[in-house]
Amino acid sequence: MSQNLVESGAEVSSDRRREREKLVEIRNLKTYYGESGLFGGRPVKAVDGVSFDIFNGETLGLVGESGCGKTTLGRTLLQLEDATGGEVRYDGTDITELSGDELYQWRRNAQMVFQDPDSSLNDRMTVGEIVREPLDVYEWGTPQECREHVKELLDIVGLRPEHYYRYPHQFSGGQRQRIGIARTLALEPDFMVLDEPVSALDVSVQAEIINLLEDLQEEFGLTYLFIAHDLSVVQHICDRVAVMYLGNIMEIGPTDELFNNPANPYTHSLLSAIPKPDPTATADRITLHGTPPNPRYPPNGCPFNTRCPARIRPPEYEQLDDEIWMGINTLRDVLLERQRADRSLRERIRERLGRQTRFASVDETYDDLFGHLNIPQDAASVLDEIVDYAADNDEDQALAVLTEEFGSVCEKESPEYSTVSETGRQSFCHRHSEEHARPSEVLDERY
Ligand SMILES: Nc1ncnc2c1ncn2[C@@H]1O[C@H](COP(=O)(O)OP(=O)(O)OP(=O)(O)O)[C@@H](O)[C@H]1O
């Protein structure tokens, strides 16, 4: 699967990228938290098997909802977080295998710019000391050479040499971010992870910092992974974009294509949430229901299946009303929560005695979700069966029936990556296979 993704991604894209070499090759990378058993139970699957390349000199955007694993992925690429599995190759060296002096020596090649310049700078150090610290750590040059280099760096990022002896609190947010950037440039890295570098700044200052980052890239041939919430910034500065959901890359490809003609239902949903400049525009917004699942309990099959607006429905229920499908989705979420809930002893005793507990409200949930709807007989009898199992606290069986009757390949199997354009754009969705309608056709029909 990932091999397919990687090979076709490498062949292609713009002429500019064709000339470029791969700087970072990421293969089936996983970062799980709590694997050691320290927290007990299941690990948080923050990054759950991603494969892609980053090309020399490009800006690759990384977008997705809060908690989908963007920062963890960025940190793992710099070995600030240990990978649970997979590879991160820079110039052919798998850095997940490095330790001790080799890792220390490698680290100077790659740096991170953080979102919040207020908390990432030590207020008790002068600007000069902050920018110079990495040089001292790597025993770079004489003290005189270091001072000169730092002053040069301050100049490069648009600050003045006399700022050397000032303290961070004497600067505005934008200037503080410039200090952070000067520090990351000190050791002349090739690759930088920019983690929401402008999100904490005033809108008026954001453009200045973006321009600075673009100028630095041009001047020093830097490669960026640009993590962001704000899709308009990504559209402006990134050559390619990777869309992340629940630890997976759902779509990756050239920015213009991905914004103008998204392939994956999740990309459709994210883009559709951006307010349109034309208030008279009539295109319907796709509403993403609920929140992403807990990465400790990712769903089976496609990671996006619990919220997907283009989910494949079984043919026998193809005509079922959208509102009924929404109810079925919510019922499934409720059952999953109940399945995971750790019932207290008191609740279990009350259940034995046939008394009401907070888990006994499944009839109420059913009424709330479906009471006002006209459900065809065949679907209604399946729903009755599901509710009966749930009322007996047999959520496993209730969910098994729900998946068997109302589920599809989306809940049962993980998708493969498909190439969805001539540039090699990749999308992770069952709907790209021959026998199913394309996501955009289904979304047009349903919305
Ligand atoms: N040190 C940690 N220990 C345990 N879980 C963590 C840790 N760091 C992050 N997580 C969890 O891993 C998941 C991914 O978090 P991450 O911060 O990488 O997401 P993100 O997409 O960068 O979110 P945001 O946009 O809010 O910064 C989340 O569920 C988060 O709670």
Automatic annotation (TrEMBL):
The keyword Nucleotide-binding belongs to this UniProt entry's keyword annotation: yes
Single GO biological process annotation from the record: transmembrane transport
Residue ranges constituting the ABC transporter domain according to the UniProt record: 24-271
Compositionally biased tracts (Basic and acidic residues): 431-447
Keyword ATP-binding included in the entry's annotation: yes
Region described as Disordered: spans on this chain: 414-447
Pfam families: ABC_tran, oligo_HPY
Lineage: superkingdom: Archaea
Compositionally biased residues, Polar residues: 416-426
InterPro entries in the record: AAA+_ATPase (IPR003593), ABC_transp_ATP-bind (IPR050319), ABC_transporter-like_ATP-bd (IPR003439), ABC_transporter-like_CS (IPR017871), Oligopep_ABC_C (IPR013563), P-loop_NTPase (IPR027417)
Keywords, comma-separated and alphabetical: ATP-binding, Nucleotide-binding, Transport
Any GO molecular function: ATP binding
Entry's family note: Belongs to the ABC transporter superfamily.
Name listed for the protein in its UniProt record: ABC transporter ATP-binding protein
